[in-house]
Design goal:
The chain has about 600 residues and is an alpha/beta fold. It is built from 20 helices and 16 strands.
Length: about 600
């Protein structure tokens, strides 16, 4: 920035010298001599003052006597100064933008600097101001237009600059800030602020549109739209708004890890909480008791659902917003990052005529996503597929999806009992939470239905004994269970900025790998960044993939479960059948350069 400051001072001095020199030259230019007949002046009184010259004045404006000796042209000086400040601001913006997008920053910095200096020097040497005006304007606009053309090729439509939509958006935004509203309300909403529309939940006394209109004119509504829009673009799953003494902090959970975001001042933060409570049909006067609700948003032609929960704290009210993108399509088994052998095993299990497949893991491990992927492998037109979920996360064609409502007395067990009377071929239960649901699911698997469900357990063996703890009889469990899939989600390294390194012997010993057999490099996020990475926003990771542990129930395992369930014996038999632990699957991803050792150890113990 030092060369820019120096250049600014030099060019400002040259500009002032230019306008002063030009105005002085105009003011002191000699008057053309016109030959006229000699006039004999009358004799003058020696005691009188000399006559007033009239046409001569020391300054650039004879009308302003108090500015005598001021030879500066105000209009030319203001234009030169404005264009110079605009040029310096644009040079700084191009430097930042080119580095963030990796659009050849050194080349564009050099071009903009050289063309700007050449334009100003040429303007200073111009004999007339109109020519200087054209030279300076061209020296600024041409490189700016060329840079905009190249950077617009690398950004989505909404991020392009100097387009009709961008110019109109900037104009309307500036006008709206000074209170001038141009065009219809729908047009202003689509341009002023991010392209997202918040839709309130219909409730007692107010519908969706009524609640949406209530908050449109509220303080902080634009900030609320920007917060939600930014969270969606960053692939956020949860937004945490936490009240502090003088601000409201914001944290985003991205790929399972919490990251701080820009905080709001306390008054704006309280206004945002009220806006989301109104949209979710909550009581805005109640700040002590916990509340929950939901609202929707429309963005880029798809609908996104949000679950909202509040909790009163000593210093205010905390709010957590869970983002559920129902418009996203469910993945298939081959898209989940499994080994081909495991995909083939799961395909065989999914297409069994009856049985029960359970996925286990902590909250946020992707269990429901795996079950949706399994349902994708089944022909929904030849089979009657019914799901019982809380809430429905993905919409699937030709699949009956039921969302339970605990407040209305609709539970997993009651819904499952009712669903079994509707002739289902495949039943998916969102979660086994109690013994009644577990027993009904096992009975359904024994009566000719294929049942998919999830269970909170650390690994596959623990999930098996968790079902026994829910008072499911071992003989019933052994005859109904087909497979248990344990899983975790690890972050994937950014392919644009990950760096290779040679693992040390201590590191290999820590993860349980033989040091003499590891010859490949491992990968990790960059320790030092020379420039920003637009692919991962300098996080080092983009997206997540699964780490799995598949326990297939064989006849020998059924006998062990039925006779005397023993943890050690079942684990030994599973290892004989080729089951790999999640840590071993995680090391495979590390060796392939998909994730890092630190990330694998963070998720899989």
């Amino acid at each position: 920035m030092l060369y820019r400051c120096s250049l600014s001072l030099i060019l400002t001095s040259l500009g002032i010298w230019f306008v002063l020199h030009e105005s002085t030259a105009v003011a002191q230019s000699p008057t053309p001599v016109v030959t006229a007949p000699p006039v004999i002046a009358p004799p003058r009184d020696p005691n009188a003052y000399p006559p007033y010259p009239g046409a001569f004045y020391r300054g650039s404006n004879p009308a302003q006597r108090n500015l005598a000796g001021f030879y500066l042209d105000n209009a030319k000086f203001l234009y030169l100064l404005s264009l110079f400040l605009l040029w310096t601001w644009t040079a700084s913006w191009i430097d930042t933008d080119a580095h963030s997008l990796k659009v050849r920053p050194d080349m564009w910095n050099s071009i903009f600097l050289l063309t700007g200096v050449a334009g100003f020097v040429a303007a200073l040497c111009s004999p007339s101001f109109p020519l200087a005006f054209v030279v300076m304007t061209v020296g600024y606009s041409v490189p700016m237009g060329l840079y905009a053309a190249e950077r617009n090729k690398r950004v989505p439509e909404s991020g392009k600059i100097l387009t009709p939509r961008h110019i109109r958006s900037v104009t309307l935004r500036l006008l709206s800030r000074i209170g001038v509203n141009v065009g219809s309300r729908e047009a202003r909403e689509s341009i002023v602020g991010p392209p997202i529309r918040l839709i309130g939940k219909s409730g007692k006394g107010a519908g969706e549109m009524d609640r949406s209109r209530q908050v449109e004119s509220s303080k902080g509504y634009l900030a609320a739209k920007e917060l939600i829009y930014d969270a969606i673009l960053r692939r956020t799953t949860d937004v945490h708004m936490e009240p502090k003494e003088d601000e409201t902090s914001v944290r985003l959970r991205i790929d399972g890890v919490m990251y701080p975001a820009e905080a709001f001042d306390r008054s704006t933060g309280d206004a945002l909480v009220n806006i989301f409570k109104v949209l979710s049909a909550m009581d805005i006067t109640e700040r002590r008791k916990p509340q929950d609700g939901s609202f929707r948003a429309e963005m880029e032609g798809r609908t996104i659902d949000f679950r909202v929960a509040t909790q009163g704290l000593q210093g205010g009210e905390k709010m957590v917003i869970r983002i559920l993108d129902k418009g996203a399509s469910a993945k298939t088994l081959s898209d989940l990052g499994m080994r081909k052998q495991m995909v083939d095993q799961l395909n065989d299990i999914v297409h069994q005529p009856h049985g029960m497949m359970i996925t286990c893991g902590p909250t946020g491990a992707g269990k429901s996503t795996t079950l949706y992927a399994a349902l994708q492998e089944i022909d929904a037109y030849e089979n009657n597929i019914i799901t019982i979920e809380d809430p429905v996360e993905y919409k699937m064609p030709n699949v009956t999806q039921i969302e339970i409502n605990s407040k209305a007395g609709q539970t997993f067990a009651g819904s499952l009992r009712s669903v079994l009377r509707q002739d289902p071929d495949i039943v998916m239960v969102g979660e086994i939470r109690d013994g009644e649901t577990a027993k009904i699911a096992c009975q359904a698997a024994n009566t000719g239905h294929m049942v998919f469900s999830t269970l909170h357990a650390n690994d596959t063996i623990a999930a098996l004994f968790r079902l026994i703890d829910l008072e499911v009889e071992p003989f019933l469990l052994s005859s109904s269970i087909s497979a248990i899939l344990g899983q975790r989600l690890v972050r994937k390294l950014c392919n644009e900025c990950k760096e290779p390194y040679k693992p040390t012997a201590d590191l290999l010993q820590k993860v349980g790998l033989p040091a003499d057999k590891i010859t490949k490099n491992f990968y990790r996020p960059p320790s030092k960044r020379e420039s920003t990475c637009p692919s991962c926003n300098d996080l080092g990771y983009v997206g997540r993939t699964g780490v799995y542990e598949l326990l297939v129930i064989t006849d020998r395992l059924r006998d062990l479960i039925r006779e005397s369930p023993n943890l050690t014996a079942i684990k030994a038999e599973a290892r004989k059948n080729g089951m790999l632990y999640m840590k071993e699957e995680g090391l495979r991803l590390v060796a392939m350069g998909i994730t890092s050792v630190d990330e694998m150890l963070r998720v899989v113990k």
